[in-house]
Amino acid sequence: MNKWKQRSRRILVFLLILGFAGTMMDHSQLNAAAADAVTEKEASKADSAAAAEEPAGSGDQTAEEAEKPEEAGETKENEEPEEPKETEEPEQTEESKEKEEPKDTEESEEKEEPKEDGGSAGNEEPEPGSDEIQAEEQEKNGTLAAEDSAKTEEETTKLQEDADVTAVRELLEGLPLPEELNTLDQEQKAEVLEKLEAVIEAYEKLSEEQKALLPGADAQLKELMDYLTEPAVPLAATDQQMKAAWDAMTGAMENWASEVDLSSYNLTASDWGRIWPDVVRNNPDLFYVFDCKYFTENGIITKCQLFYNSVYNQNSVTEYRNAINRVFAEVIDKNGTMTDVQKATALHDYLVQHMVYDQNANNNLGIEKRNAYEALVNGIGVCEGYTLAYAALLKKAGIEVGYCRSKSMNHIWNYVQLDGNWYHADLTFDDATAASQVGETGYVKHEYFLLSDTAMKNASHNWEPNGITCTDTSYDNSWHKTAPLKESAIYTVGGNSYYLKSEIVDGAPNTIIRGAALMKRDSSGNVTTVKSFDIKNLGNGAGNWPMYNICFSRLSCSQGVLYFNVGNSIYAYKPSAYTEPVEIYQYTDANNRIVTGLLSDGNEMTLEIYNPQISKMEEKINVSVFTLRASETKVKVGYTTAPVLTANPQATGFTWSKQLNGSWETINGANGSSYTIETGLPKGSYRYRVSAALNGKAVSDEIVIIVTDQEEQKNFSFSEKSKTVTYGDNPFMMTAQGAETGSAVRYSSSNPSVASIEPASGRVTIHKAGSAVITAIASETEKYLEARSTCRLTVSPKALTWDVSALKAGDRLDLIKGSTATLFGELKLAGILEKDKGTVRFECKADKLAAVYETVAAGSQKVKLSWKDTQNPAVLQGDGIGNYTIPANLPEIQGNIRLEDGTAYKTEVETGISKVPETFKNKEHLNTPSKIIKEIKQKLQEKFKEIPAANIAVYDVELLVNVNGFGWEKATKENFPSQGLTITLPYPSGTGKNSHNFAVTHMFTEDMNGFRAGDVEHPAVTKTDNGLTFTVYGLSPIAIGWEEADSGSSGGTNSSKSESSAVKVKSPRTGNTSPILLYLLLTLASTTIAAWLYYKTKKFKL
């Protein structure tokens, strides 16, 4: 029996040994698994926190296991790990985070001293029930108790921290927005500043971890503090305020006021830099204004004092206006038959001919003439004088004009708008270089007249961008530049344009100037020679005209009479009376000097005298012009008001005669400078002549008066004297009716920049708001006289209407203060023409408006709108705003008062990137869709190096927000959820919840929540049945990367918002479960045998 008992005990011990071996096998596998979880780099604090939570890939982990720290060892990269040691991974602190190697536990730090038998202390197992085992159990229990206590304390602290964060968040939400501060007075701003300082104090008491829970707080507090503590910068004046201030200043200067009140126009110092040059430098009529001084209050200009040049007085203004009127009397047809191109050409030529460049500018004396008065009254100036004088003339002619400046050239010239197109016109460069230049008198070119931008640049001009472009090339090589003599003027009389063309000697070398021809170009472009003239006594002998290869003939115009010189002969031509030009003066000189220039001005003419013997222009002489003019040249049979003929009153010894039957008969009693023709003349043509003495020489001139029995075209007229249309109206017909048979009707517009009309058809096209006179002329026939009719066309600005589709109002009933309504979105205008949408703008965000409910009750309620700042309403901006008007009163809208809040969000997802955000367009590395995709993939791979580029998908995710049921609209950084937005995206194709791990990178496209446009964040990812769920603080673009999950695990790659490198954590594995089962079976068997032995022993004793 004892033998059997001994065998049983041996079997029991053997089974116990086997069970213990199984326990050690499992323990070894657990340590080996922990060693596998070593990270390649030190994890960031945020990554450690994420690793402490349940990983996205450990779907089989229990809640109890998730609360326990993971057991893992760490090794340095590329280093063989030491023998695995069981550790408990503590929560990382800032201090521990700095170290590469993790701290070993006390157990692993103990030295392994060898035993006498050669074994290791770490390999010796204490006997069951020994003091060592009991001490270990007590120590373990104490540690767990300490951990439970620490956890309770940590949870209490966390609750306290959360309460602090919540309190500060509420304080931040109670602060006003920066734009709301504009409406506060100084006392209210002081109250806000005091409140802000309290919020900053509370915010600074938070830990860095707590501050991280309040993204964007730093920026919000700084922006408000900067606004409240730095000097306020007033908003710039609107275009309408600038225009009103311009009118006020101009009116004050025209009345020679010493001061002007500007307090109501919201002008700042920067506004002054824009308005002052426009008022004075760009306004030729204010030549007498010398300077000004403005005064400000809180950054706003309140008034300005005006100072005037003592050289000028109000009589100077009269002289200036008379000079402008004289120009129009000389070269502009008073019947209104000239086109704008003809007017612009005549005014260009007259001004260039009558001005000389001020040579003081070349001497740097600083006393050069720069204004329009000196140019028009005294005929002298630098480029600024030419430019301002031409602008003054064009404005009187109703032609749009502008200014082009070049800093590099130290130069200025004009823009001219004709038929809706802008052109360059540089009168300074079209003039002679100096007053002493031979042939300067009457000299004018057209090389820099009506040029496009391209042609002007080819002419060695450059300038600063100014918003005006000249794209039309119609006049770059027009007949103005190619047909006339290079130095000849072009003047229009009776609807036809006249110019000189040089005549050369026939045969080789074919370069000697023989004379000149007067040419006529009609409105259809047909060119005919009026008459060709040779230079008298052309040759090389004494008393003959020298032979030159240049032409000194010049053309001038005065009140419908053309004057020109060929050699020393002076000719006059009246298209209304002469069949051909007549010689009116012959210059003779004992020294054989010659005439090299001519310029007429009323009853006087200036001749330039050149001495070929010394090759020098010696003098300019004035010659009185003897010209006969008539108040009317055609009258109808039975006329009651007879035409009056007048001659130069400076002449003496007048004799009047009339041609009858081919011979001249003296009119008795007619001996003055004027004569009124007799009444009762029958139908016919009557030629009158006046003879007199002028400057010691006999002079005479003739004129033809026509008495006709032609009938008037009495029924020829427009159906209305005035007509009003609206900018934006389609082209329309505007024709006069009642022309007699055989009479051709042609149309013209006095201001084609407002409304142009096709000459033959009468089809009108509107170009801008304004007015123009439309003239219809029915041509003369054998039976009927020419007839004309006019109609004033007014183009009114287009009235725009309010568009409230994007403006909403909504509030919660219990939060409404008084009857104030909260607005969302923006107010728009409807009706701007499609062609103007790029240049005419209107911006009115909700914060520019104030709103009140008509009735404060739940449901849909009427909301009345008003401007929050009545001095700064939203207005039209850009070029062409004069073509539109906005409604005088703001609209009413329907608002929604609800009993509870209701804000909904939804996302729209697009695979890939198809458009570039505005904030990226100026970033070289992000300004195309492909660059954005490349950049976000690179950022993801920098964080998660184990993910290949092929395993990254990029999405364009757009957030839509619906506030209180007003409809879906794109979310902005202002209404993006401050606490972030949790979204779920489907798994990329070919991946799944259990087969892959995932990482997400989001790139910001706006400066928001503490991030800059182009920054990225790496949100933590949770795998769900519906897809990948994560929280972002902005949207689009988003990149998702993936890798295959480890076998036996559902996988998952976790990351935090931190920019630190990701920590790839593998959960410890228990290894093979067979040793545990074996251990349990052996333990069960040992227990069974021990119980059986005990039973047998007891039984035996009994």
Question: What does it look like?
Answer:
The protein is α+β, with helices and mostly antiparallel strands. It folds into 8 domains: 163-228; 236-310, Ribosomal Protein S8, Chain: A, domain 1; 314-481, C8orf32 fold (Roll); 491-624, Lipocalin, CATH 2.40.128; 628-708, Immunoglobulin-like, CATH 2.60.40.10; 717-790, Sandwich (Immunoglobulin-like), CATH 2.60.40.1080; 799-898, no CATH class; 904-1045, no CATH class. The chain contains 19 helices and 55 strands. The strands form 16 sheets. Strands 47, 48, 49, 51, 52 and 55 form a 6-stranded antiparallel sheet that branches. It has a 5-stranded mixed sheet with strand order 22-28-27-24-25, with no helix packed on it. The protein has a 5-stranded mixed sheet with strand order 39-38-46-43-42, with no helix packed on it. A hairpin with a 2-residue loop joins strand 15 (561-566) and strand 16 (569-573). Helix 1 packs antiparallel against helix 19 (1074-1101). The chain is elongated.
